[in-house]
Request: fold
Amino acid sequence: MQLCPCQVSPKLDFLIQPIAYSDCCQPYHDSLLDNSSDKADGIKAESAERLMRTRYSAFVLVKPEYIVKTTLPAQQALLDTKSIESWARETNWAGLEIVSHTAKLGKRHAQVEFKAFYTQSKGQPDGQQAAHHELSSFVKVKDKTSERWYFLDPTVDMSVSQKQPCICGSGEKFKRCCGVYLG
Ligand code: ZN
Ligand code: ZN
Reply:
């Protein structure tokens, strides 16, 4: 059984109930990455925390396309799939800890604070463990038939003016919507 990467936490000495990748993040990955089937519009992350977990697993399992497709559509073309892939490959991932999940912020946002652990100096057995400690923001985008959570990438330079309509398509001004979270 392949354990799901998002269920591995360095804080836990044992897993209370090990969850297989196939029962955890795999259905989300498959449904977004498999365009050939009608699964594409199937299962999707029901919360920002769920999306965060599937994105972590996608980093560990080197699925850069999943990282791109779960970022706000207006930002996707500005992402560098190749560099996401090499970063994911070169990082020696060691586990995930969700510190907090603010499931609802205003009308359509959420935040997840997490630590993504990795081992420094790949190749050295006694490598020190370190963590990316981050607060990530997410937005729920609705269209006529469905809604879906997306990651808001603060590192993407969008050069949007504060008074422009928001890049998430909400119809609100950027500064009152995702601009709050994209600093
Ligand atoms: Zn998982
Ligand atoms: Zn917005």
Remarks:
- The radius of gyration is 17 Å.
- Residues 81 and 141 are 22 Å apart (CA to CA).
- The mean pLDDT is 89.
